[in-house]
Amino acid sequence: MIIACDFDGTIVTHEYPKIGKPIPFAIQTLKKLQEEDHHQIILWTVREGALLQEALDYCKSRGLEFYAVNSNYPEEEPEHGTPRKLVADLWIDDRNLGGLPDWGVIYNMIHTGHPYEPAPQGNLEDLRQKKKGFFARLFD
């Protein structure tokens, strides 16, 4: 599987242009996905130039190297001024709808192929209603 992963707010806390604090288990999880599960990890970030190199050096010093950076494959050279459009099977980004799940949850989702389901909220009657399909609830 090809996985595109953001840097700021996903691997480290969002303190752009500085490099933030490490997000627990981000690097370890990405390394495990590469080494044990044989996924290709692409770094997908708005960082360019020296700021991008800082991020790459940060990850490399912790044992994480990417299959490609802001491109679909290592040899690809993005055209200057052209937005990057990547092809990936999965995107890991703190700006996801619902935010970034814990990295343990992310690993289990990818490893098992099961989607993320947040813990149910509310009282018992609310939970019963949520179990019914959307259209069934409309016609109750």
Which key features would you list for this structure?
140 residues, 33% helix, 9% strand, alpha/beta
Short description:
This protein is an alpha/beta fold. The protein is 33% helix and 9% strand. The protein contains 5 helices and 4 strands.
Structural features, described:
This protein is of the alpha/beta class. The protein has one domain (2-138): HAD superfamily/HAD-like (Rossmann fold), CATH 3.40.50. The chain is built from 5 helices and 4 strands. The protein has helices spanning 26-35, 49-61, 103-112, 124-131, 134-138, and strands spanning 2-5, 40-43, 68-69, 90-92. It has a 4-stranded parallel β-sheet with strand order 3-2-1-4, with helices on one face. The N and C termini lie far apart (42 Å).
Strand residue percentage: 5-15%
Reading off the top of the CATH hierarchy, the class is best stated as: Alpha Beta
Please identify which CATH superfamily we are dealing with: HAD superfamily/HAD-like
- Outline: globular
CATH architecture: 3-Layer(aba) Sandwich
